[in-house]
């Protein structure tokens, strides 16, 4: 490696690539360095270019090693060398410029960036646009208690099904948990077509072996089974590329394997150096998947570091990305489909829709009904496109290629706030390649007693999931639209007149039912379901219990259900319901959701740029007042109005409408908030007189007297809050905590001295981003260390099967140990193996703990002699004396149990 200009560099493919800190360890467990990563990438460059080339590459980077934080990166940074080939892909709300892998020099640059994982879609680029594919991938994802050998047995069954379908298949151990199976298609197809083929295989296998296989995304039914995930073929998803490294505890690789290996047993993931040795002896086991291997990538002798350096392809100077001819496209196939799946939602104007559009595939009984023909058009966006002029509106007309949707993600939902003729919210659920859409005038309810009107509108393309912007005046749905919340959902039922889903969003989460009340007017009712238990949610086809409506719902819990059964399109309302609505209409508007800080280190932050506040161990809330009454809402959008009565003078003290941000706490005798006490008061809705009352700490102001301050800098908002402080401090149990002195390390030390949970650092110029997690606010928690004695351990499950799951800890007492909890995070696989080696000789038949441990701790427990002293970090103890959020630190070789 040559040094140039004081900076280390490497010559690759005629390019000088800056390469610094080659000795930096990226995998602690094996000591694998950044230089080793470069060596591996250059050795397999021809193969990576074969199987990941001519595709946009999303990188997952670990700049400080796999024991530290990672992040996905799609956009090519501005400092990237100009010789890195790239492609600009237009998304609904932005254009993303991705790198395109076409030379070893680009791989060397990836290594410099510590981009350990390379994720790509299955389709290739055609003339710089998303095109078609000649391969499918099926991801075998083992559930809890399923090992790699069992997963391999499923892989062999999938291979047989693919063979019966006339498809050649190839196996790749993913380097993470499971196995990826690839199959070559004779004809280039769209992303939807590839998904259809994979789905048919997955569902066929699930029917044949329901005891071992599931093709359903519900996580609750995956234990003991292998999830056959066909959805990775979606145009909106990516899969880690064959031969890519993985950012795990050890430097495993997405490694091609022979079918003989999968049947022999004892299957394990491979390290990078093992992969290189196998390439020397066995060559490329994927040869044939993408046609003839390029640049020697498929030679029987494999691709060694030397051969890669000799046979690397010339890097392209052009920035457009894909070549005119893709390795997986053919001119005889016609025009490629742009963007993969053409789906996802948008909104309509806010009045009654023009036509009766039941959700797509409404006649289907289940949640998983989908395409069956390889090139079938499952849904039509004709109505959506008919209403819009693409020359005038910025709305998307295609599906978005969202390349960092990780393995196992469910379908997406999005709620968009639409300031059209009337303000309303658009709920959109990804279903059959589109976003089935409803206009909900008052947004989704958060309590079972609330029912909201939802008007079914036309299906929208998937690209609408991220759409934000202004639809021009005169166009359909004219007005400004923003994303209010988005996430994934799980489907329990999808019928013509009833849909049940479990939403997982930042603001909205829970089990919801949509019931159609009038087909003529496209009117539905959306209700937050009374029964939110997971067991109930997974009733449906997989649980003999009735999922909805329950007996309680029929007897009075669901007016929507009753009106549906009676055939009456009008929802019946009781006097109590009408009076409650009247009462709610007299209350202030619901406050906006709070801004969420990002976890990070604050010690080096300057007080010139950052302000520092205490982090309180409580419930985050926002408050809305109208000068007479107050409303409180949790960070998840749930009502906390039962506490509003606890601060009766708050609205009156301010004397004007306002919206505030703060934290609910219960201070202990020393004034330090006690979370366990707050949890008890919350359960009692503030009525537990045996513990202290709930206090409100206010630390931000979002609106005063109709003036929205969220676009103001933090410093300006703090000035306004200081003006309100005398009025707030006059209210019983309401206070405005002061700002801590900086810099960050001093503020953290002060928080530690007071015994607080930690601190929050806020950029002084930061705007308030309601409902979003932002890096302009950082939080750092203070952790306590405790030394304890190991009294037992529990075996690992799932990915840790066969290794250490958790340690059972205690403190020495006169005749044994007093249980203080367990620790199951913070140690690497290598450390776990070393701990087991020390604990095995210490096995005993009986528990060394004085009391009976909780059932979840003693289940499968293996008891040991209490001799090993360890140190753990945690966030204090619960009221029961159990560690909170404990993390492993190390063994204390210098101490014996008697020293504690």
TrEMBL record:
Bias (Low complexity) ranges: 341-356
Needed co-factor(s): Mn(2+)
Domain ATP-dependent DNA ligase family profile per the UniProt entry, residue ranges: 694-813
Region of interest (Disordered), ranges: 287-410, 533-601
MF terms in GO: ATP binding; DNA binding; DNA ligase (ATP) activity; DNA-directed DNA polymerase activity; exonuclease activity; metal ion binding
Annotated Gene3D superfamilies: 3.30.1490.70, DNA ligase/mRNA capping enzyme, DNA primase, PRIM domain, Nucleic acid-binding proteins
Matching Pfam families: DNA_ligase_A_C, DNA_ligase_A_M, LigD_N, LigD_Prim-Pol
Top-level taxon of the source organism: Bacteria
EC class: ligase
Gene Ontology BP annotations: DNA recombination; DNA repair
The entry's keywords: ATP-binding, DNA damage, DNA recombination, DNA repair, DNA-binding, DNA-directed DNA polymerase, Exonuclease, Hydrolase, Ligase, Manganese, Metal-binding, Multifunctional enzyme, Nuclease, Nucleotide-binding, Nucleotidyltransferase, Transferase
Ranges of biased composition (kind: Basic and acidic residues): 382-408, 551-589
Keyword Zinc-finger attached: no
Reactions performed catalytically: ATP + (deoxyribonucleotide)n-3'-hydroxyl + 5'-phospho-(deoxyribonucleotide)m = (deoxyribonucleotide)n+m + AMP + diphosphate
Enzyme Commission number(s): 6.5.1.1
Annotated PANTHER family: BIFUNCTIONAL NON-HOMOLOGOUS END JOINING PROTEIN LIGD (PTHR42705:SF2)
Protein family membership: In the N-terminal section; belongs to the LigD polymerase family. In the C-terminal section; belongs to the ATP-dependent DNA ligase family.
NCBIfam families (alphabetical): LigD_PE_dom, ligD_pol, NHEJ_ligase_lig, PRK09632.1
Stated name of the protein: DNA ligase (ATP)
Originating species: Dietzia natronolimnaea
